[in-house]
Amino acid sequence: MAVTAFAFEIKEGVAHITLDQAERGNPFDRKFAEDFNHLATECSVNPGVRAVLIDAKGRFFSVGGDLNALASDRDQLARFVSTATSDLHMGISRFARMNAPVVMAVHALAAGGAVALAAGADFVLAAPSAKFYAAFAGIGIVGDSGCSYFLPRRIGSRRAAQLLLLNETLSAEEAAGIGLINRVVAEEALAAEAWALATRLARGPTLAFGEMKNLLIESSTANLEGQLEAEARAMARVTRTDDAWNAMRAVLNKQKATFAGR
Q1: pLDDT tens readout for residues 204-213
Q2: Which fold has domain 6-202?
Q3: Which of 32, 77, 127, 228 is the most exposed place for a label (fewest CB within 10 A)?
Q4: What is the torsional sign of CA 44, 59, 108, 113?
Q5: Which residues, other chains included, contact 87 with Cβ-Cβ below 8 Å and sequence gap of 6+?
């Protein structure tokens, strides 16, 4: 399958995914959704991928949904949305569930679904010029891309409702202040810092990362005893790996632990 909405390469264990329709504002359209799902599948099954870095080219990180496509045929609109979201949402689920941590670097406006992508990523760095615009209510639609799942978990349910229903725009500093992103980084340093973070994660205990990501996803709906048992089972699975055994032995021998992802 030819990927055209993104540039993609794997280097030093990092799958580098770049939104690559700068002349159109990197919109979430049918091809974007197909390619996003395809890349999520590749990253989730490729043992060489140990971290993911998502960034974008152009004036915008993403303008969100492609309004030209959405408003082109009223009779087909519901069918178009249902088809596009089937790919998009499968990709979002796979990025959330895969072992490889996802780092996102936002250099400019991120609107609509791109805000949801930020909420769903494991780490987000943003330039001071970045903005996060809810967008959905502005065109009378419901948010997708996991915004109703990830936003309450990152910023709280009341703040998420305010962002979405009042159709707010957050500055990078405001987004950092409420926990939507990790931190603001000088624009000239954003690419380098995001790459450094992604490669650091790629050198880490990938299998343990995957278990921790899934425990965090399940924690808000589990009861205490269920979550404790899930932690115990995850710990047992991880202790069977070479990475855990070798790292524990290395630390005991006052050596630096290294991880191979197995």
Answers
A1: 999 999 999 9
A2: 2-enoyl-CoA Hydratase; Chain A, domain 1 (3.90.226)
A3: 228
A4: negative
A5: 33, 34, 36, 37
